[in-house]
Design a protein that fits this description.
elongated; 2 strands; disordered N terminus; Serine Threonine Protein Phosphatase 5, Tetratricopeptide repeat; mainly alpha
């Protein structure tokens, strides 16, 4: 027989290629029809002639088997059924059901093999149709536990189909089979019906480790999953690598991380530290928590690493900013040098790292590698490439990448909306025309673009669309709308959205407080802060906003700012860059320069804002020497001054009369730092030249301002004209000021005072007549006093002739008494005779 088999194999290699069924195969004894004879035939015939000729060959084989007279001769019949099952694997999917239909008596093995093949080729419903066909043929004897398990897998989370099969499982007694029950639990977990999966688990008499792992993976909340893992351990279930991998995937939250740390100890105890899947889960857990040093330690200690291991470490570095971006690049370079087969996760992590460190050149090189390996049209890779080019401010390349993506998704369009602010609305409408629905991030990007562009009407329309699309319930979208309306100066709408929130998180409170402060509603900002402290735990942004409000407010006592400072010290937030900058600004603006210096000295990380705040504080107090000393020290420490820093230095030069130094600082700003001067810079320079009496130079500089001089520049020059008595220039400046702001009383008053000083009373009368004719009224000046009451929110404001205070009479008597004492002191120093005319109001007669 061996000789016949050898001869047959050689002969079939020749005959099959000519489409002839080998006669040697037909004449061999039936007992020689083993798998070694049927499998080569199915391979060659199926590949060269397709399914129809293969079926003919199979039929001839079946006819030969049917003529076998003895039981021994019929043994190959079972082998031919295997032959029929094998035959199904070598044909295209469109012919497989024809091949299966020609099997006269299919076995459970052939059915299972066919269903498994269909599932591998992603045709679950055809596999279900094959399972259903056994019911129609009443061939339930060909259905075993594997068939049922495969049918449940084919349900693909379809609850209705799975429930029907569950009914069959119970009625046919398969519910006692652990394999079938495990498949049922997986199906219910996949369909989102975890309660039924748990019910199946509870009815199991002897669940195996797969049963426990299936339920463990079905939990949504990490706390519940880890509680179940504890019960597994208490019930004596020995964890396997799948158990550890699943449990560790839940251990990245604030409360669950400590449990994950304990699980790692258990991993080492059970000897699973060398398992690749467990190591990958540990790396992912530590990376999600930002514990990248621990993640790297696990990575370095792994004896075997797969692509997932490298990707997990790379992604962990890439999601963090700072120096970790360089570490991510180092990991990626190592992967390339090892010749690893990179996937989209590897490329995405590397490109993202380039964006964090803003390394455009390296990003372009990786982009070239992406094109080389054929991932340039991949949507995830394209999205990260767009983001990286945006961070590197190469917007044209970002647009080209978007156009190359084969099927842009919502993330792709959202990235484009965030990058191209001016075209955000048209991009949003174009995205919807493709049938893509925006998500919350899309709306956030769109609202941000509308806010920057100051598109009030469009912002209201998007607000309506958010309500219609039920996105207003998303905290992030509502917070963006609060910020948008605050920027539009519609604080009533901002407050309404805030009050309609079901849950007010810290970001929501911060948006409202910041909105009030930006719109000059400092009292409302402070009161909102007081309400916020009763509901949430304020962070550095909360304190930063309220400190800015207190700094800008003229009628809120500094004591409240000091109380905020004390609260910051208790919470350990006083040294943060945002808070320290706000404290410096508050103390500087409210005149407490010594406290500003203490805060500055205690700031560990001195940002440009911190340097600018302390320099501005000294400039406001006219301390020229301290300003210049700090400015030089700032440069020595490697901090580049911004436009506000230069403005403060120019103010100090102006008040000290250091015109030449001011000129050099101005030129240094423009030429060395390439900072475009803003109107405030020109105004300070004009004021500096004007105070020094160089009015012609000041006027010449004023005319060099791009777009013409603004109000602040003209007002500065007018003040200098009055100081030096230049009536002609003052008249030219006043005419420009009245043309720009006819309702302002300032130019009229300054001009009238200048005329009065020159004795030009007719001109004074003309100015006052012009004010009456235009309906311009002089604004009453106000002053504020801190009454020293800690519980009082506001300072007390008063003006000339104001008698609204309940003790105004006593106040006036005291003011008159103080004025008399001042006069007496002056007269006594000049040697004149002192005449007492007013008594001390506090002395009883």
């Amino acid at each position: 027989m061996k000789l016949g088999v050898v001869y047959r194999d050689k002969y079939t290699r020749c005959c099959v290629s000519h489409g002839i069924l080998p006669s040697s195969f037909q004449t061999l004894p039936s007992r020689a029809l083993t798998t070694t004879t049927s499998k080569p035939l199915s391979h060659r015939w199926g590949r060269l002639h397709g399914s129809n000729d293969a079926i003919k060959a199979y039929h001839k084989s079946c006819l030969l088997i049917s003529l076998c007279p003895t039981r021994w001769d019929r043994v190959p019949l079972q082998r031919l059924f295997k032959f029929g099952s094998k035959l199904l694997l070598f044909h295209t999917l469109q012919h497989e059901h024809h091949l299966f239909d020609h099997i006269p008596h299919p076995t459970a093995a052939s059915i299972n093999r066919s269903m498994l093949n269909l599932l591998h080729k992603h045709h679950p419903f055809r596999a279900l149709a094959m399972f259903k066909g056994q019911f129609q043929l009443c061939s339930l004897d060909t259905v075993n536990e594997v068939t049922v398990a495969l049918s449940l897998k084919a349900c693909q989370g379809e609850l209705k189909l799975g429930s029907q099969i569950h009914g069959f499982v119970v009625s046919s007694g398969f519910d006692s089979c652990v394999t079938v029950s495990n498949s049922l639990m997986k199906m219910y977990c996949k369909s989102g019906n975890f309660e039924k999966a748990l019910l199946v688990f509870e009815n199991l008499i002897n669940p195996d480790i797969v049963s426990w792992n299936t339920i463990l993976s079905g939990f949504e909340k990490g706390v519940d999953a880890l509680s179940f893992a504890c019960s597994m351990h208490l019930n004596g279930v020995v964890f396997d690598p799948v158990t550890f991998t699943t449990a560790l995937s839940f251990c990245w939250g604030d409360h669950e991380f400590f449990f994950g740390w304990q699980l790692q100890s258990l991993v080492l105890k059970y000897g699973f530290g060398c398992e690749v899947f467990v190591g990958n889960a540990l790396i992912t857990m530590y990376s999600r928590r930002g514990r990248l040093d621990e993640a790297r330690r696990v990575f370095d200690e792994m004896t075997r690493r797969d692509l997932v291991s490298w990707n997990a470490m790379l992604s962990g570095y890439a999601q963090e900013q700072g120096h970790y971006g360089s570490e991510a690049v180092s990991i990626f370079v190592n992967m390339v040098r090892r010749g690893m087969l990179l996937d989209h996760v590897s490329l995405t992590g590397a490109v993202s790292a380039c964006g964090h460190i803003k390394n455009l050149e390296l990003g372009r090189q990786i982009h070239g590698l992406i094109i080389k390996v054929g991932y340039e049209t991949h949507v995830s890779v394209g999205n990260v490439l767009m983001s990286t080019y945006s961070k590197c401010e190469v917007l044209k390349d970002a647009k080209v990448v978007f156009q190359l993506i084969s099927n842009p998704n919502v993330v792709s369009w959202t990235t484009m909306i965030s990058i191209f602010v001016e075209d955000a609305l048209s991009l949003f409408n174009e995205m919807r025309s493709y049938g893509l629905y925006p998500n919350d991030v899309t709306f956030i990007g769109l609202i941000h673009a509308i806010t920057i562009s100051n598109l009030v009407t469009e912002g209201q329309q998007v607000h309506g669309l958010c309500i219609k699309s039920c996105f207003l319930s998303e905290q992030t979208v509502s917070n963006s709308l609060i910020t948008m309306y605050a920027r539009f100066e519609f604080m009533q709408e901002s407050k309404q959205i805030f009050e309609e929130l079901n849950y007010r998180e810290t970001v929501s409170w911060n948006a409202l407080i910041s909105g009030y402060a930006q719109n000059g509603l400092y009292k409302e900002a402070f009161l909102t802060f007081l309400s916020a402290t009763k509901e949430i735990k304020p962070n550095q942004y909360t304190f930063g906003s309220v400190l800015n409000a207190i700094a800008a407010a003229e009628d809120i006592s500094l004591k409240h700012g000091q109380c905020c400072h004390s609260d910051l010290l208790k919470r350990g937030l006083s040294t943060g860059p945002i808070v320290s900058g706000a404290l410096l600004d508050m103390y500087g603006k409210r005149g407490n320069i010594s406290e500003s210096r203490i805060v500055f000295n205690e700031t560990p990380e001195r940002t440009v804002f911190a340097w600018t705040a302390i320099i501005s504080a000294y400039a406001r107090h006219g301390d020229y020497e301290s300003v210049m000393s700090l400015f030089k020290e700032m440069g020595r420490e490697g901090n580049s001054p911004d436009s506000i820093t230069f403005l403060s230095v120019l103010v100090a030069c102006c008040r000290k009369g250091m015109v030449d130094v001011g000129h050099r600082v101005f030129d240094f700003m423009v030429k060395e730092h390439s900072i475009e001067p803003i109107p405030e810079h020109y105004s300070t320079m004009v004021d500096m030249l004007g105070r020094a009496g160089r009015l012609e130079e000041a006027e010449e500089l004023m005319h060099q301002i791009p777009g013409g001089p603004g109000l602040s520049v003209l007002q500065s020059l007018l003040g200098s004209c009055r100081l030096h008595g230049n009536v002609d220039m003052a008249e030219r400046v006043v005419n420009n000021l009245i043309e720009m702001d006819p309702a302002s009383s300032g130019p009229y008053v300054l001009m009238a005072n200048l005329y009065a000083e020159k004795g030009m009373w007719e001109k004074v009368a003309e100015v006052r007549k012009g004010m009456r004719g235009r309906g311009v009224k002089k604004e009453v000046g106000f002053s504020w006093v801190d009454v020293g009451n800690v519980d009082s929110l506001y300072l007390h404001g008063f003006s000339s002739g104001d008698k609204s205070h309940p003790e105004s009479e006593d106040i006036c008597r005291m003011a008159e008494f103080i004025g008399l004492q001042m006069k007496l002191l002056k007269d006594s120093r000049e040697g004149r005779k002192v005449v007492l005319g007013v008594t001390n109001p506090n002395i009883n007669e």
